[in-house]
Amino acid sequence: MKRLTILSIITASFLVTASYANETKEAKAEADKSSKVEMKVSSVGEEKSVGEIIKIATDGDKKESSSSTPFDYKLKPKKVADNVWCFFGALDKPTKENAGFMSNNCYVKTNDGYLVVDTGPSYQFAKQAYAEMKKIADLPVKYVIDSHGHDDHWLGNNFYKEEFNATIVGPESINSDYKDGDKTRMYAILPENAIDGTHIIKVDKVVKEPEVLKFGGAEFHLTPMKVKHTL
Question: Helices in the chain by DSSP H: which ranges?
Answer without folding.
Answer: 25-29, 50-54, 123-136, 157-164, 172-177, 185-189, 192-195
